[in-house]
Amino acid sequence: MHDTPIADRPPTGQGTGDDEAWRIRRTEADMDRLAETESIFALGNGWVGWRGTLDEGRPYGMPGTYLNGFHERRELDYPEDGYAFPQFSDTVISAPNAALIRLWVGGEPLDVRTGTLRTHERVLDLRAGVVERHTEWISPAGHGVRVRSVRLVSLARRPVAAVRWSVEPLDDAVEVRVCADLLANERVPERSDDPRAASVITDPLTAEYRHSDGYDGVLVHRTGHSEQRVAVAVAHDVHAPDGFAPGVDCTPDRLRLTLAGTLRAGERLQLTKFAAYECTPVDAVPPTELARQVVAEADAARAEGFDALLAGQRAALDVAWRTADVQLDGDDELQQAIRFSVFHLLQAGRADGDRTIPAKGLTGNGYDGHVLWDTEGYVLPVLTYLDPPLARSALRWRHAHLPEARERAAELRLTGASFPWRTLGGRECSGYWPAGTAGLHLNADVADAVLRYVGATGDEEFLAGAGLELLVETARLWHGFGHWSDTGTFHLHGVTGPDEYSALADDNLFTNLMARRNLRGAADAAERHPEAAARLGVDPAEVSAWRAAADAVFIPYDRKRGVHQQSAGFTEQPEWDFADTSDDDYPLLLHFPYLELYRKQVVKQADLVLAMQRCPGEFTADEKARNFAYYEARTVRDSSLSASPQAVLAAEVGHLDLAYDLFAESVLQDLADLGDKTGDGLHLASLAGAWLALVQGFGGMRDDRGVLSFDPRLPAAIDQLAFSLRWHGHRLRVTLTSGEARYELPDADPETGVEVWHHGEPLRVTGAGPVTRPMPEVPDPGPEPPSPPGRRPARRSAGDR
Amino acid sequence: MHDTPIADRPPTGQGTGDDEAWRIRRTEADMDRLAETESIFALGNGWVGWRGTLDEGRPYGMPGTYLNGFHERRELDYPEDGYAFPQFSDTVISAPNAALIRLWVGGEPLDVRTGTLRTHERVLDLRAGVVERHTEWISPAGHGVRVRSVRLVSLARRPVAAVRWSVEPLDDAVEVRVCADLLANERVPERSDDPRAASVITDPLTAEYRHSDGYDGVLVHRTGHSEQRVAVAVAHDVHAPDGFAPGVDCTPDRLRLTLAGTLRAGERLQLTKFAAYECTPVDAVPPTELARQVVAEADAARAEGFDALLAGQRAALDVAWRTADVQLDGDDELQQAIRFSVFHLLQAGRADGDRTIPAKGLTGNGYDGHVLWDTEGYVLPVLTYLDPPLARSALRWRHAHLPEARERAAELRLTGASFPWRTLGGRECSGYWPAGTAGLHLNADVADAVLRYVGATGDEEFLAGAGLELLVETARLWHGFGHWSDTGTFHLHGVTGPDEYSALADDNLFTNLMARRNLRGAADAAERHPEAAARLGVDPAEVSAWRAAADAVFIPYDRKRGVHQQSAGFTEQPEWDFADTSDDDYPLLLHFPYLELYRKQVVKQADLVLAMQRCPGEFTADEKARNFAYYEARTVRDSSLSASPQAVLAAEVGHLDLAYDLFAESVLQDLADLGDKTGDGLHLASLAGAWLALVQGFGGMRDDRGVLSFDPRLPAAIDQLAFSLRWHGHRLRVTLTSGEARYELPDADPETGVEVWHHGEPLRVTGAGPVTRPMPEVPDPGPEPPSPPGRRPARRSAGDR
Q1: Do B589 and A83 touch (CB under 8 A)?
Q2: Which residues of chain B does A506 touch, with a Cβ-Cβ cutoff of 8 Å?
Q3: Per-position b or e across A734-761, b if 16+ CB within 10 A of its CB
Q4: ipTM over 0.85
Q5: Domain A469-636, CATH 1.50.10.10 — does that match?
Q6: How far apart are CA A541 and CA A645, in angstroms?
Q7: B677 is in an annotated binding site
Q8: What protein family does this chain belong to (chains A, B) (predicted)?
Q9: Which of A293, A396, A570, A692 is the most buried (most CB within 10 A)?
């Protein structure tokens, strides 16, 4: 018990400008955005996630403690059922809440909605890995207290989260009662009508075992249908003045430590809670044994002490930030925002090979906590370069669920494997097949993530094992699904691409090009590892067939308009009537039927533009410029996945101010709650997209099948941009100003190096020192192509922020 | 009380061959097909429908008493909801069952599954309009009884149904107890997993009022959510030997008349029940008043007597059969079957202008009792010629629901009116929009039915009123929905045609051609009734716009293959792998995902072929032959709507044996339960399709915009085919043999007449006498085009029946 008391640490307060770029701050002014703040202040380590609720639990937006993979199962009911429609869905549910510390002052509960809030500030510290809170509150009866807390979810100890909390009188003595709860089946708000929100299950947990010992205790519960068990232990460390006699009360759903007494002026009550979590299938570990495990983990954390946990946070983050930090000079708010983005990606990515990264991480229950293509499509393209083992872990999780994907393909009467559009445990949980099962491109996104990871790391062992099997089974899906026309072209009919305002289209170009990449990648890998391929039943004939299909993939192109088609016939479809669409009509999916959306040239999210980002070599520069302009005019960005690829392509074709504004939209998606959905959890894909917008957009980074190139070009708003990448074991640092680009390997020997391309020139970068090159002029791309009326991103580039 | 007792009428027994063609008979051999028999023996008058359950209620398949429009409302739950997805569905529910007469013999209940069934026969008499039953049963303890009954749903008295029932000892005296029940909330079987079945609501009725008076009584109930009230009164007429003291017992859900005593040899107990039904919205009539109405109706029926009801049946049917009968010499089974088909159409069609004709009539609860496009697409094209006022009534029902259709169009952001794909009360109840809301062709089917009715009757008053408004609002739908291409063609994107193994296709040819017909029909009608049109806001510019769109409708055609495309690109889609599809894989929708079905060239039901039937002038004879062959090879007939249009086109292109086999499949759909779904109710569209197959197929009848023509051609299996049509107030009788075609107006003055075309030659047919013409040779159409393997209809044409 040698932890430093909270009050002895420097007050949070307003720091220096540089400090502020590492902190997210919310004050009493933000109290009406509770759910949003809970998501932004969510802490996690990939296994355990605590939403940023107030210590006292109320008011709340949506309380939640999420364990990666912990879920309940519910039946899906269809008004008109169909063959192979998923009959149940797995839905994330909250584990028992160990963060609660309720306070009564003179018999009145601390509630920031009552009394007088003299100060209320919470800070997420991106380097410390904690959320700090400082509240000064006068109760309705006039008793003043100062409450402070520091929370963390341990980056060093997987099952552990902890909070140190203190209360002291502001002036005169106050009578206080403190209840530190571990609470199962906490009440949650009703389900929203928005189809993108989570389904809510009331009282999902059944108590199996409870035990208390001194101030500490443990609760074990199980779910009703998903056959899962969860155990949570809490260990308390109390520093209280004399006269506070703790009492512990344990019921099936609640373990409560109560401390009551009088705090005189200058006295302080400090309570530290160490919580440990585990969940398993019910048949894996008996309740008492699971209880024993979590008690041991909570005890060990307490024995090590809260200061040690704090130190562990900082140490882990210091290592991570060495590669992950992005310096963006010229816009302090976006500098802060990009760090916030990367922080949450690092938190979410820390799951090991048994788990993956849901679309919301562990920050909320949006999309029922499901994993979507966001992971391979957006998050892994960042983690591959910031922390490659995290990308490998997520890919191993996909590989672990190949059996279900093969079963699903067989059920769908398809060949190979078909991964689920939405899932928690590997099985398809999507309840609307035109925008679920039909989104077959997810399989190519998985393959693409494999190829990217291998290309960036040279991890041939992974490629020969899990990687190859993922590539082969997805290639088999495409080969069996595709159709050879009479004229020898290879077609993919009736699929849904990334743009969810289209569905069941023929030859979606994104899907076609990604399938081509998948087929060729599988063929290359099989030839590089022929024995492993033979064990999967791959023979040269199959490889040849993949290559033939890849070579013959159909490319829908409109000669008259001189643009590629998002899918066959797209450019012949009716135009959307933007003149008759009001601002209140967005997002369109809440105001127009799919019948209208699907048949018209209105794009929810980058689709063809995303194809140009992912498969840059498939398009000429002219084609990219024409395509970008055509689709920019029709893309409404009703999806948070859209701004980033648009930013990357806008930068590539030279519209740097537009690119910057799109980057700003992506990076502020959650901090500014642009989509009004942040309360359901953070949009990890958008946060990842912000990094991609900077690095691929302004850094011009491309990694096309193992060749790393940069075509950097900075918008006027950025004075300097610096970022690092992991590349074949090295940390490559790139620093860009308007004048020059600097490439260096700060950690490498002078003799070792990597090859990169700068605006078409190959460079060898070694540990011997930086290589610099001038930034070429960006050719004038002409006037900025129009966005749909009212849908251009907010202008930040022009300085009106 | 002067009714003739049952036993004094001639026994049912086996009649003459001619009689048998007017009767449907089921014996103990059919006892394992209870639900199917209940549908086949269903009696109705368009307002009240009694399924053909056994008098004693058990065993049953699915008991049901349906009142047209009487329903409950239930919420629809979607795993992923979407804009304008219907949030509730109206579902037909059973009114209280007044048909029940339970019998105990020596304390043992009459149950045909126990004891010994010496005789068990039930007969549907198509001329008498009754179901007769004759059972001789020996109880397990050895007591023998003969039970007879005659049931009817009155064609003369709208709210009334009645049953006369008797029991007598077979040999020795027996002790009997008879319970005649009126039973609400009767138990029904669980819902099936088949998506095409009905949803089942348990205990939908809440008792509001009950009253008994002597042997008679009344129950009034209301529904929980749909705000409807139903009242049923029963009046009894008892003929019993001395010693039978009746007792009446009335509980909220059951009114029971009990008769107990001993029947000696030669004695008989006879009970006649007269039931009367009404349902209304709950705010229309109070419970006691509704009770008074139905009691008065039941009393009046009893006062008139059962024999009078029997006479009323026969009189109504005699009138109807004069036009409706079809004589088919050469195949006794199909002769019987076509009469069965027409009988059920006449029963179902008898609703007046407040109601319409659901897809199952009132014979079952399949499709939740909903009205689909079956009505305008199949049933009205028959009723228009057999009994035009019935067609007008159904169209008036559509017109009465124009307000909801306009609201729906506005909700869908469309112009004009959009009628619901499935409905009971006018609102969309379809829970799967790609095969519901997207089936916009329903609106053109409604317009087509209007045009056909007006063309056949010359009913300008209807056209100037409801007809015009229906035409105008549907034309406005198409005009707003359509898209003008750069090259001046008019397109309908993203719709679903009749074939439900395709969805959301561009330029479905059926839809395009029917929309053209709709637009031109509206333009013609508006010009014929300019003042009425002006009141609807139609001006010459709008009419011109309709005509321009109609003229420019895009016709998808594959030049290489020389066939029309079901929708744009259809013939480029992957072929279905029939070689790898087993017999057990049908119907495909239960074994393959829509992902596979939609993107491949596999056709559930006639679509392009139906277009050739409905819009014959849009295709040359050569095109019809090539199209028919192409689509025949890809049409699996997983829908009962398919055989009829295929038969019509097979006949037109000269494949008369195939046409005959398809006709047989259509006409036997329910009598042979070919789809194993007859238990849910009869397929009225298939029954109507059977008539169309004969009259349009072999009769070669076409009615293209008011011109009535015949190109008759008989298959070898038919010696003579005779049918009648109502045409502009006349009854036109057509009699076809292999040698000649005879046209006559048997009821007309010698001076009045009509013009018809016979194989391209105009004829004037008057009351002066028949006009005969030779039947031309049918040119050899070449070999019969193949059907998908295993999917050719059973060969009946070759005589192997």
Answers
A1: yes
A2: 569, 573, 599
A3: bbbbeeebbbbbeebeeeebbebebeee
A4: yes
A5: yes
A6: 37
A7: no
A8: Belongs to the glycosyl hydrolase 65 family.
A9: A570
Q: CB distance from B68 to chain A under 8 Å?
A: no
Taking the C-alpha atoms of residue B33 and residue B149, their distance in angstroms, rounded to an integer, is 20
Answer for the pair A356, A371: CB distance below 8 angstroms, yes or no: yes
Closest residue in chain A to residue B84, using alpha carbons only: A593
Catalytic residue among B208, B304, B428, B500: B500
Backbone angles phi, psi at A382, to 5 degrees: -95, -50
Nearest CA in chain B to A90: B79
Residue pLDDT, tens place only, B316-327: 999 999 999 999
User: Quick one: which of B702, B666, B703, B668 has its CA closest to B686?
Assistant: B666
Contacts of B649 (CB under 8 A, 6+ apart): B606, B609, B612, B613, B624, B628
Helix, strand, coil proportions of chain B in percent (round to 5)? Answer: 35, 25, 40
> Is B704 assigned to a binding site?
no
Domain covering A6-63+94-294 in this structure, CATH number: 2.70.98.40
pLDDT (average), residues A148-157: 97
Strands (E) in B51-173, as ranges, are 65-67, 71-75, 88-92, 97-105, 108-109, 116-125, 130-138, 144-153, 160-169
Q: What's chain A's average pLDDT?
A: 94
At residue A282 the predicted structure's pLDDT band, cuts being 50, 70 and 90, is very high
How far apart, in Å, are the Cα atoms of B287 and each of A799, B198, B203, B249, B280?
73, 29, 19, 20, 10
Confidence of residue B199 (pLDDT cuts 50, 70, 90): low
Q: Residue B117: is it exposed, middle or buried by C-beta count within 10 angstroms (0-12/13-18/19+)? A: middle
Interface contact A79, partner B, CB < 8 A: yes
The distance in angstroms from the start CA to the end CA of chain A is 48
Closest A-chain CA to B591 = A83
Inter-chain contact A195–B80, Cβ cutoff 8 Å?
yes
What is the total residue count of chain A? Answer: 801
**Residue B304: CB partners within 8 Å, gap ≥ 6?**
none
pLDDT at residue number A200: 66
Residue A434 forms contact with B (CB below 8 Å): yes
Chain B CB contacts of A599 under 8 Å are 493-495, 504, 506
List the Cα angle B148/B278/B357 in 5-degree steps: 85
Range A566-575 average pLDDT: 98
Q: How far apart are CA B565 and CA B630, in angstroms?
A: 10
Q: Which residue of A has its CA nearest to B599?
A: A494
Instruction: Write out chain A residues lying below 8 Å of B504, CB-based.
Output: 434, 503-504, 598-599
- Closest-CA distance of chain A to residue B558, Å: 13
Q: Is the per-residue pLDDT at B440 higher than 50?
A: yes
CATH 2.70.98.40 given to domain B6-63+94-295:
yes
Residue A248: phi and psi, rounded to 5, are: -120, 135
On whether any CB of chain A is under 8 Å from the CB of B242, the answer is no
Which residues are paired to A174 by β-bridges? A263
Percent residues over pLDDT 70 in chain B: 96
What pLDDT shows up at residue A9? 45
**If we measure between CA atoms, which residue out of A45, A24, A42 comes closest to residue A678?**
A42
B592 touches chain A (CB under 8 A): yes
Q: Is A493 on the interface with B (CB under 8 A)?
A: yes
- Give the CB-side neighbour count of residue A749, counting CA atoms within 13 A: 3
Regarding predicted confidence, which is higher, B198 or B240? B240
Domain residue ranges in chain A:
6-63+94-294, 469-636
Residue A558 annotated as binding? no
| Contact assignment for B504 to A596 by CB distance below 8 Å | no
Catalytic (active site) residue B72: no
User: Is residue A605 annotated as involved in ligand binding?
Assistant: yes
Beta bridge partners of A395: none
B647 alpha-carbon distance from chain centroid: 19
Contact B573 A434 (CB under 8 A): no
